[in-house]
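Title: Request for sanity check on Dihydrodipicolinate synthase family protein prediction

Description:
We are preparing a figure and want to confirm that the structure record we downloaded matches what your pipeline produces today. Could someone re-run it with the sequence below and paste the raw structure tokens into this thread? We only need the token string, no images.
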Amino acid sequence: MTVTENRPWRGVLVATALPLDDDLSVDYDGFAEHCAWLVENGCDGVVPNGSLGEYQVLTPEERAKVVETAVATIGGQRVMPGVAAYGSAEARRWAEQARDAGCASVMLLPPNAYRADERSVLAHYAEVAKAAVPVVAYNNPIDTKVDLVPELLAKLHGEGYIHAVKEFSGDVRRAYRIAELAPELDLLIGADDVLLELALAGAKGWVAGYPNALPAATVELYHAAARGDLATAQQLYRQLHPLLRWDSQVEFVQAIKLSMDIVGRHGGRCRPPRVPLLPEQEAVIRAATEKALAAGLA
């Protein structure tokens, strides 16, 4: 068994955007084709039903079918769905659904309906761990207002509740503290625009946004950074950073979907409450995407 098979969250796992038709219905065939295309272009797997996949505005039936579609297309070993929910019981049910669909791991936010304290966070992950599928924590204190600081991550890992963490705080210093407190806890890059810094700090994977539009170049960037090939990595990072930084903006879903449309993929619209980009935002993203295309990065 390879390391990736044993720890399927390692490598480049794409937080998949969900293609929607003009009537805002889910294009499941398009999503299946997108998952296959990402793997064909070097990505190791997909993370459906994250924020980029607009899980908050899917019906339960749609959310389940998204997972089943990904598994049927590329195999459960490559699929790590987001199982976030307001309640721990519901999050556990989504973890069980993913497990039963054949997924090898799941990704879980802390409680995000309120500013949870440490005891609540521990109880939340303990409950979802009962689903008996490996859990990757997702630390996004910007959106959830709950910060999985290194000390808390070490506790969660020490209890056996989590195996890795998608780190979205943007604070690259945490990589070294996490490694000290929980050396067996895998650190995953959580924001596209700190990829180089966290890869050099020892990250074992990347839960990625912009490979939805530019998989080959972004995968090359990740692998160059992970092996310490700074000459290759820095050049690609500079070329791609005007796009990568959108992954940390409020409009990241709209931005990535627009870039997908420009490169000939099907991004499509977003469901409300997300609204279309402002003309000036669209112009910046369009120019950066076309520049990447001209540079042969697509």
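Thanks, this matches our download. Residues 11-230 form a domain with the TIM Barrel fold (CATH 3.20.20.70).
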